[in-house]
Amino acid sequence: MTSLDKRLSLLFVAFWLLIAMSLPLLAQEGREIQPEAEQLMRLANQARAAAGVPPLQWDRSLAEAARKHTLRMASEGPIAHQYPGELNVSERAGLTGAHFDLIEENVAVAHTIEAIQDGWMQSKPHRENMLSPEVDSVGIAVVASRGVLYATADFSRNVQALTQEQVESRFSELIQRTGVKVLADHRAARAACIMDKGLPGSDSLSQPAFIMRWESSDVTHLPKQLADHLASHQFQEAAVGSCDARGDDGTFTSYRLAVLLY
């Protein structure tokens, strides 16, 4: 091997050593940093404990929505809650499968996790989002890019995803506790649920004396008006029906119901 060949060989080895040393840095650039996201959650829950509010629970769907937005922040530069052509935070979270009736978002860019947390705590709206007793879930994403950390935290009040039958069962149980019998046939109530008023094709003999329709994400309490009617002891039977909610944008989780009292 000539001296030139040896020099070329050494240069070749040095080149690939440089590439190998650079690979960890290249892999880190633009990637999601789960440990840092977990650190931000711990810091948030420490701040909530100091404020006397319950801890946040991790929500994978919120984290996925936060991840997608954080990647966009890292690629587009100046941080923002919504970029041109991007869905808003409730729509982004809804598409990833999150179920909620309240959602807030914090975004930040800084050199360290501690600086991100400190910035949120020093900002009144960001601090209020983090410490709100109204939220119980969080999804966080952190992305390293251009020597800084981009972060998104989506806070929400989680709503359990229930089927039509499960919703009807929940409210049937609440009504039965008042002493009113709940009919097994849901067809009339489901038909009433779809309509704004009246009943389709009902026999006059089976017309209910009272109909109530409403939408809510709360399946643990009866509406006051309905509870008052049940407490009047004027009714012996009830029919419960659920149908698709009519939310404005379809991203907030709520349930639509109709209850017929006989």
UniProtKB/TrEMBL annotation:
Species assigned in the record: Telmatobacter sp. DSM 110680
Domain SCP: 42-150
Protein name according to UniProt: CAP domain-containing protein
InterPro entries, per the entry: CAP_dom, CAP_sf
Domain of life: Bacteria
